[in-house]
Amino acid sequence: MSAPQSAATNPLRDPVRAGALAVLTLVLLASFWRAPYPQQMALQHLPTVLAILLLGGASHRLPVGRSGLLCLVAFLLLHVLGARYIYSYVPYDDWLEALLGFRPGDRFGFQRNHYDRLVHLAFGLLWVPPAREVLIRRFALRERLASYFALELVLAASLLYELFVWGLTMVLAPADAGAYNGEQGDRWDAQKDMACALVGATLAALAVRSRPPANPQRSPNSPPS
Fold it and tell me: What is the dihedral of CA 196, 144, 59, 153, to 10 degrees?
């Protein structure tokens, strides 16, 4: 008989992991309420649903600690917010004006909505740590080598994502391709998005290169990672 899964590898038996996934699922469902662009938003949420299913159902195959899983959930929450407004129309100017009394678009002379740039930067920052954990725990790479390959994997994923969304929209909704891809009239949008991911991934790799991942097999009295 196989040993039962530990809470560190089964999110359903870890209240922190289960709570994070529950919050993500509830926010995803709430994002559909009075959505301003429901048709395009549904297509944006396809990767979100797949990610939730992966994190909830196959987490035992991904040796990622709590901190790594929380990084992934934090990124997906940013994506859910962007997907609700199909990225190009996230009203951060209105929100910051209400909270802080200034509009970044007016203050810095932005000609476009830059929320998508923030999310691509966050992709690099928040995906390198869990990718590094998997490389160390599953493939026994040394820490610095794992940091390097985690950065490379994130950059490859950024490239594949740009190709995926382009191909998907051209097949399913070619008339909405520009809106779904969030180009906002910038023909170099994909390259700039990947550059943001590179900056975020490089910063994350430098930050975690000397920090070993938390041990996924913890005793009941050990502090959480």
Answer: 40
Let me know: does 212 contact 225? Beta carbons within 8 Å. Answer: no
Helix, strand, or coil (residue 108): helix
Sequence-distant (≥ 6) Cβ neighbours of residue 20 within 8 angstroms? 11, 69, 70, 73
- What is the CB neighbour count within 10 angstroms for residue 142? 10
The burial class, CB within 10 Å (0-12 / 13-18 / 19+), for 37 is middle
| pLDDT, tens digit, 9 for 90 and up, residues 34-45 | 999 887 788 788
Select from 203, 180, 45 the least CA-distant residue to 116: 180
Tell me what pLDDT residue 17 has: 86
Looking at residue 162, its pLDDT comes to 84
What is the model's pTM? 0.82
Q: Which two tokens stand for residue 27?
A: 């926010």
Q: What's the rounded Cα separation, in Å, for the pair 138 and 146?
A: 11
Long-range contacts of 168-174 (CB under 8 A, 24+ apart): 168/43, 168/46, 169/43, 172/43, 173/40, 173/43
The residue type at 29: L
Give the distance between the most distant pair of CA atoms in the chain.
Answer: 64
What whole-number distance in Å separates Cα of residue 83 and Cα of residue 116? 10
| Residue 211 and residue 205 in contact, taking contact as beta carbons nearer than 8 Å | no
